[in-house]
Every structure is written in structure tokens, then in C-alpha cells.
Amino acid sequence: MNTLPTYQQSRWSLAELFASAEPSEMQQAFSSLEQKVAQFETIRPALTETVSSADFMQFVRQLEETNIEAGRLYGFVNLQFSEDTQNQAAQSLLARVQQLFAELTNRTLFFSLWWKDLPDTAAERLMAVAGDYCYWLEEMRHFKPHTLSEAEEKIINLKDVTGASALSLLYDSLTNRYTFKLEVEGETKELTRDALMVYARHVNPDLRAAAYQELYRVYGNDGPILGQIYQALVRDWRNEQVGLRKFASPISARNLANDLPDRVVDTLLEICQKNRPVFARFFKLKARWLGMPHLRRYDIYAPVAAADKQYTFAQSAGMVFDSFAHFDPLFAELAERVFKANHLDSQVRKGKRGGAFCSTPVHDLTPWVLLNFQGKPSDVATMAHELGHAIHSQLASKHTAFTAHASLPLAETASTFAEMMLVDRLLAEETDAAVRRDLLFRQVDDAYATIQRQAYFALFERQAHEMADNGASVDELSETYLQTLKEQFGDAVEVGEEFHWEWVSIPHIYEVPFYVYAYAFGQLLVLSLYQQYKVEGEAFKARYVKILSTGGSQAPVKLLAEAGIDITPAEFWQGGFDVIGSLVDKLEKDFMVY
Ligand SMILES: [Zn+2]
Q1: Distance between CA atoms of 233 and 229, rounded to whole angstroms?
Q2: CA 3/CA 7 separation, integer angstroms
Q3: Is 162 inside any structural domain?
Q4: SS3 per-residue string spanning 133-160
């Protein structure tokens, strides 16, 4: 292996986007964007059924240029805000950009409306010469039956800024202020949610219980208000998507945006529901390892071994690069580019956004990655995860700005796959039985959290959207939520009453209805892909690289079909669960010989 420089934790540099946030520089960016939009508005009379393909392509490129510039600006202010969410200047800049974007979107709206309204023959003539823009153009036309008049679309966009989006921001503002109190070894700590939930994985069962009880005490205090916000958002979604846009059901609107047929999503959710026993078996096994008669909901992420390894930042980077290089040296090289470009913010600082993400504001620039690295094994996994996203986006960067980004159901492919590469590498090198067991248990813990838990959120959303339409109260929604938990866990896990507030603590169901099933989709897909990799070895790699390199330039069903994967039958999704099932088998055997 080549020698790696020793990486240190640092802030990132945003210089590739803008040299600074100086008012003069920002003002110039605003004016330049404004100018581009004004120019684009002049093409309006030229948009006719007989527009020449040369002119059409020029307009498309013009719109793309405008989008790239907008992405650069938004990316910059958003990343700057993530660095320090308490920075007032960054906050107001972000708000200003959001308002500006709603206005600019409205001024360029005429293009997509014209395009969707064009007769098939004219659209086909233009798509035939559109090259890599083709799928983007085709996707837009899927929405033709659900599109309103220009005036109506403009009203919705403008009213959303102060309506649904504002409600969603209000939810964020309310919940981001929460602090949680937890008594640890005789000392009362005041914690953020991220810091509190570290105790969900603590070895001490009382601390685990106390952490969850405190979480839902705080959310429960505001439960009726948070629930009310949810009801309003859900009604807004139905009024718009079903009432005005005539989607068959609330979830159908999300499915079309993901370009997935309704029946594929229905099958996915059915199979998740059907496979409850796989995780039930895992939870019962976990109870035995922990020496508990029964697992409580507080214990599902409990560690089975008290193996508290710490890794330095340089060690972690080395392990991640090494596991990528083992798969393909190109993967390690692409991951390392993020470090070399200084696009990684890994420090833990007050006011910095929690969690982790990878962002590619301009499709052909090296992505930016945010981590809050503290040296825990899960931090190493997160590093692999986010760098997986960065690899995906670099492999797809040759596409247009409209077709580079993978659609939601495929967006977690490279990241989840990267985590599996890391775990495999660690297992291959680890000789300590307790650490190995811990790694395997964590793998199933994570599979539970990304597949079953998220699928059940989506199942709850489906019910909640119906119930809210029929005037259900917040208490009735809470009761229904508790029922879905009881169905999910059966007799394997005991669920405390306070968990009826869990749904008001899930930002995704507020911000992006039905977003969550994409996690289950992605993880089950990757389990199947990884299985193929193990069987086929080298032969698999080219196919995998092709899936990633396609980015968002093809429909997910088609893209996967070309890679030999048919996601339409139930058996495909079952295959993913079978992989988890065999992991649980392995752990059960392990317990017998222990
Ligand atoms: Zn991810």
C-alpha cells in the first residue's frame, strides 16, 4: 500500500465556491444570478412547438448554467451555516437566499410548464437530440397530469415559503432548542439530543432507560403542539397532492418524484412487514447475550460486548482508505480527494451542525463532507458512509447538473456499500472474539434501524395521512403510533408507554413526507448487491461502478435492470432479508458455542 499522509482533524475550506462571505462578494453573486434569470426570461416567446433543436438545447444549457450558479450560492451559504448554526450573519444570509430562490424559481417556471404541456411528437423530436439531458426532460413530463396553471403554481411556491416550509422551520426551531437532563454517576448533565442518545448504546441498562424516558419527557411536554404542526403539514400535503394535483394517494406523489411505480413501493413495505420475525429473533438473541429475561425497547441498541475501542482520526482515515482500496484503488483515490481538497470539516465545535453529511452543491466539484469525529467505532463507520457518498458523486460528475445526482432511492447505495466494505475489512483483521461479535451485532442493529424502523415510519405515515384527513386528534395519532410499534416488535420487545411520542420526534416525516422508505429501499438493495459481490468477486465490480456512474441519468428501475437486477418481484426484497437472516443464524450458532 502507498504511504498516506497523516491527516489531522480540521475545518473545511469553502474557497472553491466563494472566496469569502464579504457583502460585496455576495451582492455580486446575487446580481449575477439575477442577470442570468432576466436573460432566461427573454427566451419565452421562442418556446413554441416548432422551436429548432439547436435553440432548444441552447435554452436548456442556459437554464443549467443558472442552476449551477444558484447551487453554488446556496451551497456556500448552507455549508457556512452548518459550520456554525449560531452565526447570525450566516442565518440571515440563508433566509435571504431561500426567499430569492422562491422568486427565481417562479420566474423560470414557464419553461417546465411549457415543456410538460408540449405534445408528445414535439417532445420526442427534442428529446432525441437531448443526449444526457434526456432523462431529466422525460421525468418532468411524468408530472404533466399533476401540474396546475402557471398562476396557480406560482401561488403555491410563494405561499409555501411562509406556509408549509415555515411550519417545518418552526418545528426545527422548537425542537433544536431542546436540552435534556440526565444523571450520570451522580452528576446531572445537560445534553443535546445527539449527546443524550449516545446513552442509548450505554452498557448500563438504567442509563439506557433514563435516556429514552428523558427524550420523550421533553418531546412529550410539547407533544400536543408538535402533533398539531404535523396535522397541519399532513393536511397541506393532501390538499395539494391529492386535492389539487390529483395524485391517487399521498404516498404516490413521493413515489413519482422517486420515479418508482406505486406497486414496487407497496411490495417493499409488505415484505418489510412480513419479515418482522427476522428481527424478533435477533432481539430475543440479544436479550440472551445481555442476560435479560426480556429485551425492552430501551435495550435494542445495547452493546453485547463492552469493547470500547477508540481510534485516532489518522487511524480511521487509514482504515477507511484501506478498505476502499481493497475493493478498488480508484475508490480510495476518490475518497482521499475530499481530504486533499480540504473539503472535510471533522472537528467537534459548539454551534456546528450535529451528525454528518456529504454535499455536492456543484456537480463537478469535489464534494464537501461534514463529520463530528470523536473516535468511536461508529465515527469510523460514519466516515466510510459519507466518503461513500463522495465517491458516488464524483463517479457521476460527468453528467449534466440535472442528471448527475442519483435519485433518492439510489442515493444511499454507495454509502451503505462503503460501510459494508469497512466492516468486512475489520472482521477480516480482528482476532478478538468480543470485538468481532460487537461488529456483527452492530451490523444487524444498523440494518434494523435503516430497514425495519424506517419502513414502519412509512407505514405509520400512510395511516396518519388518512387519519388526519378524517379529523383524528393528536392523541389518536399517538395511540396508532404505539400500535404500529407493538405490531413491529411483537412479543420480542417490551415497549414503554412513553414511546407513543416517538413520531413527534422524527424530523423526516415533517419535512419530507414518505422520505423514509428510501432508506429501507437502499439498504435492502445494497445487501443484495453485496451478496452478488461476494459470489462474483471481480466480475461484479464493473457493474457496480456502472450503477454509481449513471448518477441520476436514468430511471432507477431501468438502471438496475441493466445491471441485471429486477426490483419488481417480492423475491428481490426477500433476498435482502435472507442476508440478515443468515447473519442472525451465525450469531445464534455463536451463542451456542459460547
Ligand atoms: Zn447517507
Answers
A1: 6
A2: 12
A3: yes
A4: HHHHHHHHHHCHHHCCCHHHHHHHHHHH
Give the rounded distance of the alpha carbon of 125 from its chain centre. Answer: 36
Write down the mean pLDDT value for the chain. 93
CA of 514 to the centre of ligand 1 (A): 16
Q: Are 461 and 550 part of one and the same domain?
A: yes
Residues 6+ apart with CB under 8 A from 280: 489, 490, 491, 492, 493
Most confident of 83-92, 427-436, 482-491: 482-491
Tell me: do 232 and 136 sit in the same domain: no
Q: Looking at the structure, do residues 442 and 516 belong to the same domain, yes or no?
A: yes
Burial 108-122 (b: 16+ CB within 10 A, else e): bebbbbebbebeeee
pTM (2 decimals)?
A: 0.89
Q: How many CA atoms lie within 13 A of 215 on its CB side?
A: 27
Stated length of the chain: 594
CA–centroid distance, 127 to ligand 1, in Å, is 32
For ligand 1, the distance from its centroid to the CA atom of residue 379, given in whole angstroms, is 13
pLDDT tens string 401-416: 999 999 989 999 999 9
Same domain, 32 and 148: yes
389 CA → ligand 1 middle, Å: 7
- As a dihedral over the C-alpha atoms of residue 277, residue 282, residue 284, residue 286, rounded to 10 degrees, the angle is -170
What is the count of structural domains for the chain?
2
Q: How many CA atoms lie within 13 A of 421 on its CB side?
A: 28
Compute the distance from residue 415 Cα to the ligand 1 centre, in Å: 6
Query: Could you tell me the residue range of the domain that residue 35 belongs to?
Result: 23-172
What integer pLDDT is reported at residue 591 of this predicted model? 75
Taking the C-alpha atoms of residue 451 and residue 454, their distance in angstroms, rounded to an integer, is: 6
Asked whether residue 341 is domain-assigned, the answer is: no
Number of neighbouring beta carbons within 10 Å of residue 574 = 16
**Does 562 lie in the same domain as 441?**
yes
Helix axes 453-469, 262-274, angle to 10 degrees: 120
DSSP β-ladder status, 357-359 and 344-345: unpaired
**Quick check: 507 and 176 in contact, CB under 8 A?**
no
470 alpha carbon – ligand 1 mean position (Å):
35
Q: Burial letters for 218-236: b for 16+ Cβ neighbours within 10 Å, e otherwise? A: bbbebbeebbebbbebbbb
- Cα-to-centroid distance, 120 and ligand 1 (Å): 37
How far does the centroid of ligand 1 lie from the alpha carbon of residue 355, in Å? Answer: 11
> What 3-state class would DSSP assign to 378?
helix
Please indicate, yes or no, if residue 186 is contained in any of the structural domains. Answer: no
With CA atoms as reference, report the closest residue to 503 among 536, 474, 532.
474
What are the backbone angles phi and psi of residue 184, rounded to the nearest 5°?
-120, 120
Amino acid identity of residue 559, one-letter, is: L
Q: Is residue 31 included in any domain, yes or no? A: yes
No. of H helices and E strands in the chain?
A: 26, 7
User: Does the pLDDT at position 342 exceed 80?
Assistant: yes
CATH of the domain at 531: 1.10.1370.20
